[in-house]
Amino acid sequence: MRMAQTPAAADGSSGDGALGRVPPQSIEAEACVLGSMILDAMAIDQVVQILHDDYFYRPAHQIIFRCLVQMRHESKAIDLVTIKEDLVRRDLLEKIGGQDYLVALAEGVPTSANAEYYAQIVRDKALLRQLISVGTQIVRDAYETQDEAPIVVDHAEQSIFEIAEQHIGDSVITLQDLLRHTFEMLEQHEGQLITGLASGYTQLDELTSGFQKGEMIVLAARPSMGKTSLLLNIAENMAVIDQAPVAIFSLEMSRNQLAERFLASHARFNLRQMRRGVITPETWTALQTAAGTLETAPIFIDDSASLTVIQLMARARRLKSLHDIQCVLVDYMQLMLYSGRATSRQEQITEISRGIKALAHDLEIPVIVAAQLNRGPADRPTHTPRMSDLRESGSIEQDADVVMLLHNEDYYHLGEEGYQPRGVTDLIVAKQRNGPTGSVPLVFLKDYTKFESATFGVEQPLGEPMADAPF
């Protein structure tokens, strides 16, 4: 490639990078990008979707790129003469190496048809330089920070994650392509009406259309209502039926307890008998069969009892990167530790809730988190829970896209003479940011710690969102 020399003062490539080495760059690709833009104004429209001026390693190339983009924006004719005049007017011609350098750029490019390919090379080199810069900053922060170590680690991981997940040059898509994609989804889910991740409970999935990407779903209940069981049942349905990789963060139960519950639920075997070792040859075979199915289910379990939201986000990012998890389930929110500076528990839960919401958004997957309700349901005559019963912080209901409240009226009438048990646990969808609210009847099989859809009754729609739903 024939190219005029750039003055040293304008050429940032001559200096040493980190550790005395020249940072990653491709001067040839940069020159080809600019040459393509000079020869074909249409190439500018392609390149600007991929590159910014600071992606160029040479300062002179940054100047020329900004000049070409501005001229295109102003609908000016672009050729060697007009570019030279524009640079002269801005007193920048000598800084980029003079007219000879512009001529060399135009004559040195093989073809402007490859402008997008050249731009991708420039972008990739820029990403590598960003990674070096972030790595240097991580080292500096580790030496000089006044923050606690977990916060520094999270900032470091987030910085690298942002580089890895950069979607540079998001392109505009036509309505035709969108409609084609929509019909492909409709065909894929024909008869199911599920556009998100199915829970395995038909009426719930019909109400929500599945748990959607980026959603924070709260499953709240009073103690002994079965929220942990339902959380695990949902995870089991996702991983076994749909083979969707899921991650469970259990702050309340150990990994062994979770394994026993999964096995009892899937084999429909009495959990108490399993723990006591009361197993016949026939039931042993059933347990082995269930275990074989569960072994192939992509379920990842973290039973750290002392888990902060920063640690949750870091571990979930790794699992997403390594195993492409499609859902995160947390049991339960109020047990999470806090590592920041907020003093009141309400402020701490607010920060934890916001972190969980950010996790769902960043990983673009649903995050289902169990939460404890206060004594409000026990103190009112109907015992029906409300979102305002969410314990310690109103920010949970504000951050959540979906709030589900688990309610078993029979629990409040145990041993009460004359009371006729309903045998039904109501899963109340009290808030759904992008859909209707309603109630789904479930039956809890206590021996198996398993919820199943009720075979009787119908979903009772609540109509308009509840009065205390914060939209």
TrEMBL record:
Keywords: ATP-binding, DNA replication, DNA-binding, Helicase, Hydrolase, Isomerase, Nucleotide-binding, Primosome. Signal peptide: none annotated. Its EC number is 5.6.2.3. Residues 1-20 are annotated as: Disordered. GO terms for biological process: DNA replication, synthesis of primer. This is DNA 5'-3' helicase. Belongs to the helicase family. DnaB subfamily.
